[in-house]
Design goal:
Blueprint: E1 5-9, E2 18-33, E3 38-42, E4 45-48, E5 52-56, E6 58-65, E7 71-73, E8 77-81, E9 83-87, E10 89-111, E11 122-146, E12 149-150, E13 153-157, E14 160-161, E15 176-185, E16 189-194, H1 200-225, H2 234-253, H3 258-264, H4 270-288, E17 292-298, E18 304-312, E19 315-321, H5 328-345, H6 358-387, H7 409-424, E20 429-433, H8 436-447, H9 451-460, H10 468-476, H11 480-492, H12 496-511, H13 514-520, H14 524-533, H15 541-545, E21 550-552, H16 559-568, E22 574-576, E23 579-583, E24 589-592, H17 595-602, H18 612-630, H19 644-665, H20 670-681, E25 683-687, E26 702-706, H21 707-723
Parallel strand pairs: 3-6, 4-8, 5-9, 6-12, 8-13, 17-19
Antiparallel strand pairs: 1-11, 2-10, 6-7, 10-11, 11-15, 11-16, 13-14, 18-19, 18-20, 21-24, 22-23, 23-24, 25-26
Helix pairs in contact: 1-2, 1-6, 2-4, 2-6, 3-4, 5-6, 8-9, 9-10, 9-11, 10-12, 10-13, 11-12, 12-14, 17-18, 18-21, 19-20
């Protein structure tokens, strides 16, 4: 447990911040028996005796000591003896070492007396942070022998020149031989106990330390990989991401997470959200040393996520669109984004637009703001789950019901104020998502009959004001080109993921409407979505026949029963026992089985050098492939047979038509038009469901995709199919 102690003193400031104390003990023993080498040496050695010569662990040789201090045998030994015997001598060594220690780290926190409170005194809090216990026990035993050694030369025994037996060492460079050496280590302990583990507050501190360490690494990666950072930003960026965590922690601790629950939006009112955002902005301003005059909650088209009004370089107003926030982490993301714009405006961080083209500068500042918004969202999730008793929050889960926005006078007043400021001062605004100026351009285009612009406006309307029937009717009248143009516009506004999700949901809703479903039958994506959302009741027999990953059913006892059910279902596939059954072109019963392909697609790798937008496109591509596989629409066992000429005919026509659409849509906005055309130039025309997975070579099945992503994924898919034995 934490072991705080408190002492009081009458006066004086202390400069001690921490101390270490410890105790240790050690003992050791050693024993050894060693032989000193006896030698008879010289440049020439002549020995002549009629008796016995006995060499015991000694050296007899002729030679000289070289510059390195080593004895070099020259072979000038002449030994004449009546008889010759020899033996080696043994050496032993034993040592034992035992040690133990205990060290404790103590932090000291000095709190001076409050001069406005005459009863208060200086207070010093002592806390044991960690203890380290070590113990070591080591034993070493060694045994060697000193060899009886006779150098090179002539050896005569009993009047006859002889060769000595192999047990007598004749090599002067090898005078010792190790018999064994054993080192035993027993009971070693090296344990550090972090006393914070023994209390909830302590465990939270440890979790925070880990989070801050992660942020340190991520900040360094940002500087290395993102265009909006330079090497000189490293220390500032490390500091600002740590301050962001300070903000999220302080906000979470307000009322034990009460404000976070408000921003989750399950039952909270607009007035409660406004109170929470006001306090949130105050914490941001205090932490970063900036001025935020007001932070207001508004309700408008949800693709306008938030905005910052840069009235001057000393103050900012921030607007957060509740309709665009799915949960508390979305609020954190948008607030972190807009506060970054405020910091840039007030000069407390580097303006990425300085010294570069205006369009490039805007893009760099947006990337920077998006980066900081991401840290804020992660920090909100971490702080809620660590410091409060709230239920854990998940940034991917939608909880905000946007309750009461339509009836709130405060929200209406805030929204009107935002529209007025943004309309009169467009050059003083920074946005997350679509700007009010872009929103008005969409309105003008919709009035002139542009279906894509009209769809974006309708899908983005506040939830309580959405006209579902109007959306249904518009979708039913749109073709594939209109849908793709809508997605291209969304990509320019950096809201592609939200728009694609909204379009898919709208198609599902539209498809359930009997009045509009029949008009959607020519739109392949809509048909696929309809088939996927009908609770697995059926999949079009034509899709099955076209080559879903199917295998003939073997060993099933009720084949006839299933075939009968398929016949009663008009020849369409059925679901039974968690599997999809249908008939192939030969009338055989087949079942969908995409598990192997699915596992392999999940392991498709992204390139390290891809930026955030490329990674986003890559993950959407992978998610699309997995969805098609899981729904039984991807087939690696049928050759597509599409020639390069046939493929080019579709993709070139799509690129040409898309270019015309861009030039028409942005005819009054040269900058936006050029940006869109540049993006198109950097993109391939990709088959959404790849041809090698039974995708169709039709206009409905193509879309733009970053060139690097498309080619990397295409190559990896080819390798997967080869691994599966499919040429």
């Amino acid at each position: 447990m934490d072991n705080p102690a408190t002492t009081e003193n009458e006066s004086g400031d202390s400069n001690i911040n921490g101390a270490n104390g410890g105790a240790n003990t050690a003992n050791g023993t050693s024993r050894s028996k060693e032989t000193l080498l006896t030698s008879i040496t010289g440049s020439t050695v002549n020995i002549n005796t009629t008796g016995n010569t006995d060499i015991k662990g000694a050296l007899v040789a002729a030679g000289e000591v070289n510059e390195e201090g080593n004895f070099v045998d020259n072979g000038q030994l002449d030994l004449k003896t009546g008889s010759l015997t020899h033996s080696d001598l043994s050496n032993t060594s034993y040592s034992s070492q035992t040690s133990a220690s205990l060290n404790t780290n103590v932090s000291i926190n000095n709190q001076p007396a409050n001069p406005q409170d005459p009863t208060s005194k200086d207070q010093t809090d002592l806390n044991i942070n960690s203890s380290q216990i070590t113990a070591h026990n080591t034993q070493t035993t060694t045994k060697t022998k000193t060899l009886a050694t006779l150098g090179e030369g002539t050896v005569t025994v009993g009047g006859t020149e002889v060769q000595t037996d192999s047990t007598l060492n004749r090599n002067v460079d090898n005078l010792d031989k190790e018999i064994y050496s054993v080192e035993q280590t027993q009971g070693n302990v090296d344990l550090t106990i972090d006393h914070r583990l023994l209390s909830e507050d302590g465990r939270n501190d440890i979790a925070e330390d880990a989070e801050r360490t992660v942020r340190l690494g991520e900040a360094i990666v940002d500087v290395a990989t993102k265009e909006s950072f330079e090497a000189g930003d490293t220390l500032d960026h490390i500091d600002e991401v740590q301050k962001d965590l300070d903000v999220q922690k302080a906000f979470a601790l307000e009322g034990d997470g009460a404000f976070i629950e408000v921003l989750e939006g399950k039952d909270s009112t607009p007035e409660q959200k406004q109170e929470a955002i006001t306090r949130y902005a105050e914490i941001y301003a205090e932490t970063y040393g900036i001025s935020i005059e007001e932070a207001n909650v508004i309700a408008t088209n949800k693709y306008i996520k938030g905005a910052t009004h840069n009235e001057n370089q000393t103050n900012n107003n921030i607007y957060i669109n509740d309709e665009a926030q799915r949960n508390a982490t979305d609020y954190a993301n948008t607030m972190g984004h807009e506060v970054t714009h405020a910091r840039v405006n007030q000069g407390t961080t580097r303006n990425r637009a300085d010294g570069v083209d205006a369009a490039i500068g805007k893009r760099l500042n947006e990337e920077y703001a998006n980066t900081m918004g991401g840290y804020s969202a992660d920090g909100m999730e971490f702080s809620n789950n660590t410091y409060t008793r709230n239920a854990p929050i998940d940034k991917h889960t939608s909880t905000n019901t946007h309750k009461g926005n339509a009836d709130s006078e405060a929200i209406k007043s805030n929204t009107d104020g935002f529209v007025n400021v943004a309309t009169n001062n467009p050059n003083q605004m920074d946005y997350a998502g679509v700007s009010l100026e872009q929103y008005n351009q969409l309105k003008d285009a919709a009035k002139n009959g542009d279906k894509s612009s009209e769809l974006l406006l309708l899908l983005g309307e506040p939830k309580e004001q959405q006209d579902t029937q109007k959306i249904n009717t518009l979708l039913a009248s749109m073709d594939q080109e209109d849908i793709e143009t809508t997605k291209e516009i969304a990509k320019d506004y950096d809201i592609q993921a939200e728009v694609e999700n909204d379009i898919n949901n709208a198609i599902v809703t539209t498809a359930k409407d009997p009045e509009t479903y029949k008009e959607l039958s020519g739109y392949n994506d809509a048909v696929s979505t309809v088939n996927a959302i009908l609770d697995g009741d059926y999949i079009e027999a034509g899709l099955l026949a076209a080559g879903i990953l199917l295998k003939p059913v073997k060993g099933l006892k009720n084949v006839d029963e299933i075939l009968d059910l398929i016949e009663k279902n008009g020849g369409k596939a059925i679901t039974k026992d968690g599997k999809i059954f249908g008939k192939n072109k030969n009338g055989e019963l087949v079942e969908a089985d995409a598990k192997d392909l699915e596992d392999r697609v999940k392991n498709i790798k992204n390139k390290d050098e891809w930026d955030d937008k490329q990674l986003s496109q890559a993950e959407r591509k992978k998610a699309k492939l997995l969805k098609e596989i899981q729904e039984g629409k991807a087939s690696p066992n049928s050759k597509h047979g599409v020639t390069d000429l046939e493929r080019s005919k579709i993709t070139n026509k799509y690129r040409k038509d898309l270019k015309k659409k861009i030039e028409s849509l942005y005819k009054d906005n040269p900058t936006a038009k050029q940006n869109a055309l540049d993006k198109l130039e950097r993109s391939d025309i990709d088959h959404k469901l790849d041809l090698q997975l039974s995708g169709s070579n039709t206009r409905a099945n193509v879309n733009t995709l970053d060139s690097s992503v498309n080619r990397s994924y295409g190559k990896q898919l080819d390798n997967i199919l080869k691994d599966l034995g499919i040429e």
